[in-house]
Amino acid sequence: MPGPESAPGAAVAAPAAIDAGAAPPARLRPGLLSRGRLRALLARASHTLLPGACVLCGGEAWTGMQTCQQCHAQIFGTARPRCGVCANPLAGQWHAQAPGAPMPASRGGAVCGRCLAHRPAFDATLAAADYAMPQDQLVLQLKFGGRLALAALFGRALADAVQAAPGFERPAVLCPVPLGPQRLAERGFNQALEIARALGRRLDIAVHPRLAARVHDTAAQSLVQPSERRANIAHAFAVADRALVEGRHIGIVDDVMTSGQTLDELAAAFKRHGAARITCLVFARTPPHYS
Ligand SMILES: [Zn+2]
Ligand SMILES: [Zn+2]
Questions:
Q1: Among all ligands shown, which has an atom nearest to the Cα of 72?
Q2: Closest C-alpha to 27, from 242, 167, 225
Q3: From ligand 2's centre to the CA of 276, what distance in Å?
Q4: How many helices (H) and strands (E) does the chain have?
Q5: How many angstroms does the Cα of residue 210 sit away from the middle of ligand 1?
Q6: Which ligand approaches the C-alpha of residue 106 most closely?
Q7: Cα separation of 260 and 239, whole Å?
């Protein structure tokens, strides 16, 4: 088994994965786009943006950033209290962020009622943003439009959220949610791996793309009835080498967390192989999802 990536851009193989909820939805969830709008987005995504242009509005980006100040404020301009375990928003005050201030961070101490009742296999989750307009468009452009440069934006946002989170425990290694072989062949890349690479570079944490493998292709979670999602993803992951996992704090990286069941299943696989702690690091969190 290959070791962790040692340098940015190091050749990695197998791509990895995605939340199964990543495939273009046949029946759209609330908040996702219609097929027509998706097509329009993809068409727009195929345009080559000039260097220095905001990825959302095409205006002049902030120096060293991929967004302009206004779009940055729209995406990351408010911090909300979140459950430290699952990153679902908690009731409480929103805090306006000054431009350039750290991204919204999960609060390690507070735990939502749902996690108190049924603690997931992961120990903590950190999300950089809600899965909502306009950043949901960026997620779709990365995933379905192949705009891999957006992974750097997501990785940076996550790194900023990590650095702004009080008492955040840094994982020893990052692992993207792996894709099944068929999904990987169709897409040609795993956006979770691309985000993990960008995040790992910023935080100086090794990325190990093959710490776990998806042993069979599963139906996209978005196409499965909520009541069947747990069964759909059950036993989907295998851990190849217990020695790489045992006693370690593993950070699982993904683009979007919706129900959290994919992350829970992967975290459970790592825990069965002796992982000491699991932290999920997701760019965007779908707001309260109780199905
Ligand atoms: Zn903009
Ligand atoms: Zn929670």
A1: 1
A2: 225
A3: 20
A4: 9, 9
A5: 36
A6: 2
A7: 19
Instruction: Quickly name the fold that domain 20-29+78-285 has.
Output: Rossmann fold (3.40.50)
Closest ligand to 117 CA?
2
> What six digits make up the tokens of 4?
């962790």
Preceding amide of 134 cis, omega within 30? yes
What is the pLDDT tens value at each position of the chain, 291 positions in all? 444 554 443 333 333 333 333 334 333 344 455 554 554 455 455 444 556 888 888 888 887 788 888 888 888 766 678 899 999 988 765 555 444 444 444 444 689 999 999 999 999 999 999 998 888 999 999 999 998 989 999 999 999 999 888 788 999 999 999 998 888 888 899 999 999 999 999 999 999 999 999 987 777 777 777 777 777 777 889 998 999 999 999 999 999 999 899 999 999 999 999 999 999 999 999 977 554
Considering every ligand atom, which ligand is closest to the CA of 134?
1
